[in-house]
Structures are given as structure tokens and as C-alpha cells.
Write a structure and sequence with these properties.
With about 270 residues, the protein is mostly helical. It has a single domain, classed as MetI-like (MetI-like fold). The protein is built from 11 helices and no strands. Helix 6 crosses helix 8. The longest helix has about 35 residues. It starts with a helix and ends with a helix. About 35% of the residues are buried.
Length: about 270
């Protein structure tokens, strides 16, 4: 179907409007992080790096950043192991209840975050604390984030396995390779880029998660998004919050960009 000049102009204008609605506020936040006026007078009377210096030397944001990185790495590690194993099992084997398990694996990403958070908080209060003595904290944040990060890795691995087919693995078996050797020499090298891309996306998803984190974090545990939310309406902290928000956006963009590049390269490899 061909679109006329007027239709193309309308589509481009609509796309530009949507992108402006998303990215112009981010640009304003970035500019306000250099605004010398504490009340964010517009246009900025002058620019300063004072708020960046305060944010980089304040203990609160640094500790929250470290907690976010730990939670992201922990959730990503769990997601890579379980997501890849589930993807291999559901893509390469047929067994009773396969479709039900597939639905259960994907369901957490579709559930509202507040529902997942309430459910996890109930488990922490009624099971983990009284039975195992595990209180809400970094561990429960990691487990909570892993519930939806697994889906990202699972989808990447499943998509790559569908594109690959089973012919190369069958050829390896016909040549006498054992299952573990086939996995090491054939399957894993072809899955490597999708695993890395899934891991990067999982880390980015975990790093800026706030809803589930609110219900699974303990009183003394605070991630970077939680720190921003807690200090958002404190007048004295507003300039520093802008700086931390810019840092959060930049850190979140990097894994998504890298995952997109790896995903494109992996798709090209699977067609060779």
C-alpha cells in the first residue's frame, strides 16, 4: 500500500509530536540539573555544576546507586540462568503441561507491578520472616526483580532458538557429539549474543524498577528510584533529584542500546 505525500507528512508530524511529548520533559530535567536557580526559574538565569557536585558527593544517592547495581546484577544472574534453561526446555522438548508452564513464565511481565508487589510482600511477611527469618531487604528486592527479568531472557532465548531451528544440533548429534558437547560447541555460541542482550535488558529493567521495589525493600534498603521518589517533594533536594534523574536515565539507556545492537547482530548471524 502506497501512502500519499499528505499521509506521510501527517504520520511524520504525529511521530514527532509523540517523541516530543516523551523526550522534551527529559531534556528540561537535564537542563534544570544545571539551572543555578533552586526554584527552577525559566529560562535559567545562569548555569552551574554545583548540583552535580553535591549529588556526586552526597552519601544518599551513592549508596542508593550501589544498591540498585547490586539488585540489578543479582536479578540479572538469576534471570539468565533460569530464563535460558526455561527457553531451552520449552523450545526443544515436548511434555505434558508445556503450554501452561509457558504461560506461567510469561505472566509476571503482564501483571500490574502493584499486584506483584503486594503478593511478594505477603510472602515476605507470612512465610519468609516467620519461617526462615528472612527480612525484607536486598535479597527480597533481587528475587522480586528476577520474577519479571526472567521473562526478558526467556523471550530472547526462545526467539533465537526458533530462528536457529534444530538442524545444527541434530547434525552435531549425528556426528557423535554428546548433548553437553553439542551445547558447548553449537548451541551456546549461537545463543551467546541473545543471552547478553537479554541480560542487558534485564539489568535495565531491574535498575529503574520502583513499584515492586517499594513492596520488597526493607526500611533501611533504598534503590536509586526509591531515593528519587522519597526526595522528589523536598524543596532543598529538588536540584539534586534532577541530577540523579539524569544519571538514572543515562545508565538505563546504555544497556538498552547495547542490547539492541547485539540483538541486531545476532539476528544477522542466525540467517547466515
Amino acid at each position: 500500500m502506497r501512502i500519499g505525500t499528505g499521509g506521510r507528512v501527517t504520520l511524520w508530524a504525529f511521530a514527532a509530536l509523540v517523541l516530543a511529548f516523551v523526550y522534551v520533559p527529559l531534556a528540561i530535567v537535564a537542563l534544570n540539573s544545571f539551572n543555578s536557580d533552586r526554584t527552577f526559574g525559566w529560562p535559567p538565569p545562569s548555569f552551574t555544576t554545583r548540583w552535580w557536585d553535591l549529588a556526586l558527593h552526597a552519601p544518599g544517592p551513592r549508596e542508593a546507586l550501589l544498591t540498585s547495581v547490586k539488585a540489578g546484577l543479582g536479578a540479572t544472574a538469576i534471570a539468565v540462568v533460569l530464563g535460558s534453561l526455561l527457553g531451552l526446555a520449552l523450545s526443544r522438548f515436548d511434555f505434558f503441561g508445556k503450554r501452561v508452564i509457558n504461560l506461567l513464565v510469561i505472566l509476571p511481565i503482564a501483571l500490574p507491578g502493584i499486584v506483584t508487589g503486594i503478593a511478594l510482600q505477603s510472602v515476605i511477611q507470612n512465610v519468609l520472616q516467620p519461617v526462615f527469618g528472612i527480612n525484607a531487604g536486598l535479597f527480597t528486592i533481587i528475587v522480586g526483580h528476577a520474577t519479571f527479568c526472567i521473562v526478558v531472557v526467556f523471550n530472547n532465548v526462545s526467539a533465537r532458538l526458533r530462528r536457529m531451528g534444530a538442524s545444527l544440533e541434530a547434525a552435531s548429534a549425528d556426528l557423535g557429539a554428546r548433548p553437553f558437547e553439542t551445547m558447548r560447541r553449537v548451541t551456546f555460541p549461537l545463543l551467546r549474543s541473545s543471552l547478553v542482550a537479554g541480560a542487558l535488558l534485564a539489568f535495565g529493567l531491574s535498575f529503574d524498577e520502583i513499584v515492586v521495589t517499594t513492596f520488597t525493600a526493607g526500611p533501611g534498603t533504598q534503590t536509586l528510584p526509591l531515593w528519587i521518589f522519597d526526595n522528589l517533594f523536598r524543596p532543598n533536594q529538588a536540584p539534586v533529584v534532577n541530577v540523579v534523574a539524569v544519571i538514572l536515565v543515562l545508565i538505563s539507556i546504555l544497556p538498552v542500546w547495547a542490547a539492541q545492537r547485539l540483538g541486531g547482530e545476532g539476528a544477522a548471524e542466525s540467517r547466515i
